[in-house]
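Subject: for your reference before the review

Hello V.,

The reviewers asked for a structural picture of the protein, and I figured it would be easier to keep everything in one thread rather than splitting it across files. Below is the amino acid sequence we used in the manuscript, unchanged from the supplementary table.
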Amino acid sequence: MSETSETNAIVIFGASGDLTRRKLMPSLYDLYRKGRLPENWRIVGVSRTDFSDNAFREQMKAGVKEFARSMYDSKSWAEFAANICYCRGDLTEFEQLRGVDKMLCEWEDDRPGNRLYYLSIAPNLYEQAVANLGAADMVHQDHGWRRVVIEKPFGSDLASARALNQAVHKVLHESQIYRIDHYLGKETVQNLLVFRFANSLYEPVWNRNYIDHVQITAAETVDVGHRAEFYDNVGVVRDMMQNHVLQLLTFVAFEPPSSFDAEALRNEKAKVLSAIRPIDERNAAGCTVRGQYRTYRDTPGVASGSTTPTFAAIRFYIDNWRWQGVPFYMRSGKALAAKSTEINILFKRPPHVMFPMPPGATLSPNRLSICIQPDEGIHLSFQAKEPDTAAEMRTVDMSFQYEESFGALAIPEAYERLLLDVIKGDASLFTRSDAIELSWELIDPILAAWQTKHAPPLSFYESGTWGPVEADELIAHEGYQWTQGCGEEANT
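And here is what came back from the structure prediction:
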């Protein structure tokens, strides 16, 4: 790389944690191998752990070997590792933070210096960490940009999210804050923009006139495991629904932005969230389901008699011109039958069927499945005539798989895309403060309703199934059921 007068530092606070080893450093290595890191760059790991530079590099090398998408080789690693250093420090200790700043200033050597601060730390430390960065005079942008990446969760309810927003805004401009949601870094989520707005085939039917309902599933096969103590104070709605799943809903539902610009995109997402019909104790029993896998309470760290949901299903309506009357069904849970994150668009059935069919039979609806993980792709199911019959029909599938079309290595890790966007200053895939608060305004009343006498009962389900039967009853709309459209048959 050529020399430049401008420096670029990527500072990871909490660098001794699992996120750095499994996601951040392998993604940065992949960016390096692709030649996408800026010139004159350096990665600085900061944590309370006592590491030498070499010891930290060795730990990171193990993570890169195991998790990087690019093929590891010793020569590339040696070149990459030469730009990695470590500084023992604690974000909550002001004087230690000044030591980190001194190290960065010495490297910058009076040159303009850009800095990315990644807060891979406990959420309860975000406010103090940002305050200390400000007090140490490490966020001013007189001689280069300063950007701060904050991991989820951003608040635990509306009040805490607002308080955190207010606290960070005392130190940082909104343009400096990058609230990260790794789901939005997944290639298929980003492709929704292109799929919807670069193809004239789909956008004309992307509305209440043709779409019957939408299903969004974020299912995990794993149980709470070693996260039990944390999870028991959070539950599936805070862990998955408030952020990941609601974000997917906005990508499906928003209006075409005026331009491919971060603020235009985020404006449309905020409009969707503000148009979602609220759910509270008056209608929570009819619009929500809460479940818990049967062995959850036996897990060490889980409170005796815990009512924390490990599964939730919610039916939302968006009260605007495009989506009036179209239900959006969301479900997420632990210990389910398959690991899958997908969006299924179910189209309305034809108004008249002229083909002979058995009594009581109906046409299967056309279904568009956007498969986010584990197998990224898009599938369209439709009716086709069976050969050598008069008019017998069968549902067939038209499929696009990223791996088949572009190769497995062409699909980047989500953090790779998001880290590059922070470096470039593109906030399109990051959540703005108003969207954070709007999402909590939707979620808080649901959680509150679940604590009242009007709450839906806590339903139990067996591990390895698709959740409680009440979730099936929630979606029994025009005879429909939960659909898994990404390589599997429909399930109930």
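For the response letter, the relevant points are probably these. The chain has a mean pLDDT of 91. The chain has two domains: 7-151, 184-474.

Happy to draft the paragraph if you're swamped.

O.
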